[in-house]
């Protein structure tokens, strides 16, 4: 894995529904012992991770992985930039050229990739 175990991953758009990819991603991150924090529309717990509904000021983030469509991402641009992640992952269906350009301007790396696939192939 490319991440340092002391760095956290923020999953944005987490669903409490077990059949959603965002939910599966939280389970898999926890399984790989990657410190994980999460934001979703509804409070709850997924794989022992409390789902926040507020935009908390997380520190030491390595990666923000997105499970929100581009339109819903727009209101989070400044928030994500303020967290100063090392990279942002755009999972399938979340690709957003506008936000990618903003990330480029702020020297934040990004990838268009599936979190689950990266974990399964040891490329995370």
Number of domains: 1
Q: What separation lies between the terminal Cα atoms?
A: 5 Å
The CATH architecture name reads 3-Layer(aba) Sandwich
- Going across the biggest sheet, name each strand in turn: 3-4-2-1-5-6-7
The number of distinct helices, counting runs of at least 4 residues, comes to 5
The helix/strand series, from N terminus to C terminus, equals EHEEEEHHEHEH
Q: What is the name of the CATH class? A: Alpha Beta
Name the helicity range: 25-40%
Q: How many DSSP-defined strands?
A: 7
Global mean pLDDT: 94
Which descriptor suits the 3D outline? globular
CATH topology: Rossmann fold
Over all CA atoms, what is the radius of gyration?
A: 13 Å
Strand content: 25-35%
Please tag this protein with its features.
alpha/beta, Rossmann fold, 7-stranded mixed beta sheet, 5 helices, 30% helix, globular, disordered N terminus
Detailed description of the structure:
The N terminus is likely disordered. This protein starts with 7 loop residues before the first strand and ends with a helix. The protein has one domain: Rossmann fold, CATH 3.40.50.720. 30% of the residues lie in helices and 27% in strands. The longest helix has 11 residues. The chain is globular and about 35 Å long. The chain has 5 helices and 7 strands.
Quick synopsis:
The chain has helices spanning 21-31, 70-73, 77-83, 97-105, 115-120, and strands spanning 8-14, 36-40, 44-46, 49-52, 61-66, 87-90, 109-112. With 124 residues, it is of the alpha/beta class.
């Amino acid at each position: 894995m490319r991440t340092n175990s002391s760095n956290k991953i923020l999953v944005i758009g987490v669903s409490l529904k077990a059949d959603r990819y965002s939910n599966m991603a939280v389970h898999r991150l926890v399984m790989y012992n990657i410190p994980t924090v999460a934001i979703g529309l509804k409070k709850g717990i997924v794989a022992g991770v409390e789902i926040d509904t507020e935009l908390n000021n997380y520190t030491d983030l390595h990666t923000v992985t997105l499970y929100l469509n581009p339109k819903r991402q727009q209101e989070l641009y400044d928030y994500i930039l303020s967290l100063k992640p090392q990279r942002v992952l755009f999972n399938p269906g979340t690709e957003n050229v506008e936000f990618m350009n903003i990330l480029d301007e702020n020297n934040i790396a990004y990838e268009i990739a599936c979190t689950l696939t990266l974990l399964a192939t040891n490329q995370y």
